[in-house]
Structure formats: structure tokens, C-alpha cells
Write a structure and sequence with these properties.
- By secondary structure, the chain is mainly α.
- It is built from 17 helices and 2 strands.
- Helix 2 crosses helix 9, helix 3 runs parallel beside helix 16 and helix 4 packs across helix 5.
- The longest helix is centred in the last third of the chain and has 31 residues.
Length: about 425
């Protein structure tokens, strides 16, 4: 699974670095959704089978896995943006932090006006979707187990729910693309397909103990799935519409890769996905995902006048360095500490304290700096170039791929001038240089 995680996170990072590198790289998030659906369902079903499932234990695992690094990145980035960002922009950072603290970042970004691509916490939308799923789906499995729902019946229910979610995704992409992109009901089908993989044995055994599914065919299907994933990342672009029906290709590619039986995990696909580098990147994928976007946005915000090549190098070096360091010296040891059964109370206590800190600092950032911006008291404001608080500065050069997918962001349509930062005038200073 780590190899597929590596494919997902690298594709997202390349897309956000410059969407021209990988036009459909945002589909890495969809791959993560399938992986999450599969892994979480597998864990819960295993606990039910062994009659040891506990909601308290389940959420302790989620807290120890997600929250410590989430809190570290959030507070670190908040401190940096307090120095770098203008008052109006910093206020928006506070709003997104509050929403992220209560797992509602995706809901905020549905209704926030304009682009969100300058917000360092914009990538938290996908975490919010997964956290909402963690709240709902274990309860569904618990009820299915309590009322002795058969695996077949559960599969039918999940399949119907996935189909309805997929239809909603297609319909809303045409008219309310923000809703289709950011909301759990229109993304649930991706998670549910992963769930179905865990509920239904991919390669059941016959009466004689032999595998019904030929291992070579399984290996071939996995290879086809990986090819479909990679091809989708190059073929999905601004004009295809997103998410919509087109995202079914990388999602089903992920299903083919994940669903291969353990005994069929041989051949070129397995060699690629089990390569030590791929495994290492996959294990650090959560750190890479959390760090890369805020690093990209802050570098662009602070150094927009610097050469593209310098900014690209800084983005890569800083995001990879921070990710590997935090994974090695923070994420792994803290997760191991908080995941112990005897540390359950500590994990819940730290989660509660951290969430309160994020809420308080987020609210304060939002209210105090929004007032500063409205009064024109930002220390960075001043001069004709900054006189329009609500306008946009066009940053030239290589811009990040839009956070909300191909074809929906201003950045995806502007050509060579493709980066917006609210709170600064939309006058392009290069015009003055060209006229001299």
C-alpha cells in the first residue's frame, strides 16, 4: 500500500508545483480516498471478527495517526504566515484554521468567495472529508454487525450508496462544481469502493482450496490499474471537467491495484510499488501532503518577484526536508506513544487541548486581523501598489496547480500570469518596467 501512497502524493505535489507537469495530478487525492476506505474498513472488520472492536480504541488510533503532525504543521504555518502575510490574507488563514480544527474545512471552501489557492491550509479539505467519513462509517459497520447483516447484504447497500454518490458527483460537477469537489456526499463513492474491497474477498477460495481467480490475471489487472492511474494524470486537464465522471478512471485504477490478492502480488507492478524508495515515500506521504502545500504558497507569497527556478527549488527542498524530518523525529515516535492502549486518556486529552488551541488562535487571527485590514492598519499596506485591499496581485511565472482541481481555478486559465494573492492591487508592476 505504501507504493500506491507514493504514487498518490508525488502526483499531487507535482500538480501543485506546476500543473503543466502533471495536469491530472490532483487525482492523487482520489487515490488516497480509495486507500483510506479500504484500510479503515479492513481494520474495523478485523476487530469485529475478533470481537474486540471499540469506538474509543478506533478513535484513539485515528487521533494518534492524524492529529499530532496536523497540529504541528498548523501552528508552525500559522506562526510563519503571521510574519509573511498581510492582515486581510492572515485573517483568511485564521478562518481556515478554525474550520480545519473541527473537520469542516471542506465546507468552508464551498462557500468562500474567489480562489483559495493562496491559503496555506487549503489542502485540509481532503482531511476533513476523511475525518467526516471516520465519524460515520464505523457506526454503519457497527450497526451492520449488531443486526447480523450478511457480507452480501452489506455489499449491496454500500454499492447502492456508492452509485448514488457517483451520480450526484456527475450532476453537481456541471452546475455546482464546488459542491461536487468539496463535499463528502459527492466524494463518498471513492471511499465506499475501498470499503467494498475490504468487505468482499477479491479472490475467494473454492471447495478444493484453490484460488478461483488466476494469479496471473490478477497481476495483469493490477498492472492495468497502475497504467490507468498514470495515464489519467496526464490526460485529465482543464477542459475535462472535474471531478465528474472522468475521475472514475484513476479511482477504478486504484481499485484494481489495491484489490489484487496477496498471493498475486508479483510481477512488474509489485516490483515498482515495493521498491525501497517508493515504500519510503509512501510511509512519509502524510508528512509530505501536510507540508508541501503551505510551503508552496508561502514561498510564492513571500518571493513572488524572485525567479521561477529559485522558487521551484525552494519549494522542493523545504517541503521534502520538513516532511522527512517531521516524519522521522516527530510523527513516528509520537504516534507510537499515543497509540498504546494505556495512553488512551492522554491521546484524547492532547487532542482536545490541541483543538482548543487551534480554535482560539484561529478565531483571534480571524477577528483581530480582519479589523486591521478593514482599518488599513496592516504594516505591509501602503503605497499605490497596495491601496486596494480586496483586489488581486498577479504573480508571474510558475504558479501552483489549483487546489480545487483542473479547470476551476483562475490560475488554470490565466496562461503565463497565473497566481493570485488577495489583498494586493491587481496592477502588474511589470507593465511599468516595460514602458520605461
Amino acid at each position: 500500500m505504501d507504493g500506491l501512497r507514493a504514487v498518490a502524493v508525488v502526483s499531487v505535489m507535482l500538480f501543485h508545483l506546476d500543473k503543466a507537469l502533471l495536469p491530472g495530478g490532483i487525482t492523487g487525492v482520489d487515490i488516497f480516498f480509495v486507500i483510506s476506505g479500504y484500510l479503515i474498513t479492513s481494520i474495523v472488520i478485523m476487530d469485529f471478527d475478533k470481537e474486540r472492536f471499540s469506538f474509543a480504541r478506533f478513535y484513539q488510533r485515528r487521533i494518534s495517526r492524524i492529529f499530532p503532525l496536523f497540529f504541528l504543521v498548523s501552528i508552525t504555518i500559522l506562526a510563519v504566515t503571521a510574519i509573511v502575510y498581510q492582515a486581510y490574507d492572515f485573517a483568511l488563514v485564521g478562518s481556515s484554521l478554525v474550520a480545519a480544527a473541527v473537520s469542516l474545512a471542506n465546507m468552508l471552501f464551498v462557500f468562500i468567495p474567489g480562489d483559495i489557492d493562496e491559503l496555506p491550509f487549503a489542502h485540509y479539505w481532503s482531511l476533513s472529508i476523511e475525518e467526516q467519513y471516520y465519524l460515520i462509517f464505523p457506526l454503519i459497520l457497527f450497526l451492520a454487525d449488531r443486526y447480523r447483516l450478511s457480507r452480501k447484504s452489506l455489499t449491496i447497500v454500500l454499492s447502492i450508496a456508492a452509485l448514488l454518490s457517483f451520480i450526484a458527483c456527475i450532476v453537481l460537477t456541471e452546475s455546482y462544481s464546488n459542491w461536487a469537489f468539496f463535499l463528502l456526499p459527492t466524494r463518498a463513492w471513492e471511499l465506499l469502493l475501498g470499503c467494498i474491497l475490504a468487505v468482499v474477498p477479491f479472490s475467494p477460495k473454492g471447495d478444493n482450496g484453490s484460488s478461483v481467480t488466476n494469479s496471473r490475471i490478477d497481476g495483469l489487472l493490477a498492472s492495468v490499474g497502475l497504467v490507468v492511474i498514470i495515464a489519467s494524470q496526464f490526460l485529465i486537464h482543464d477542459e475535462t471537467g472535474f471531478p465528474g465522471w472522468i475521475v472514475a478512471f484513476p479511482v477504478f485504477g486504484a481499485v484494481l491495484v489495491i484489490g489484487r490478492p496477496q498471493e498475486s502480488r508479483t510481477g512488474i507492478t509489485e516490483r515498482l510499488l515495493s521498491h525501497p524508495v517508493a515504500v519510503m515515500v509512501g510511509k512519509a506521504s502524510y508528512s509530505l501532503y501536510l507540508w508541501h502545500w503551505p510551503v508552496y504558497t508561502i514561498v510564492d507569497y513571500a518571493l513572488f518577484t524572485k525567479p521561477d527556478s529559485l522558487r521551484i527549488v525552494l519549494k522542493i527542498v523545504l517541503s521534502v526536508t520538513l516532511s522527512l524530518a517531521s516524519y522521522t523525529w516527530f510523527e513516528k515516535p509520537v504516534r507510537s506513544l499515543l497509540n498504546r492502549p494505556e495512553r488512551r486518556r492522554l491521546s484524547y486529552l492532547l487532542y482536545t487541548a490541541g483543538a482548543v488551541v487551534m480554535l482560539v488562535t484561529g478565531f483571534w487571527t480571524r477577528t483581530a486581523h480582519e479589523i486591521d485590514a478593514s482599518l488599513g492598519s496592516s504594516s505591509k499596506a501602503g503605497g499605490a501598489f497596495n491601496e486596494h485591499t480586496g483586489a488581486n496581485l498577479l504573480l508571474a511565472g510558475v504558479g501552483n496547480g489549483p487546489m480545487d482541481g483542473p479547470g476551476r481555478s483562475v490560475m488554470a486559465r490565466e496562461g503565463p500570469v497565473n497566481r493570485h494573492v488577495p489583498g494586493v492591487s491587481d496592477h502588474d508592476p511589470r507593465q511599468d518596467l516595460e514602458s520605461d
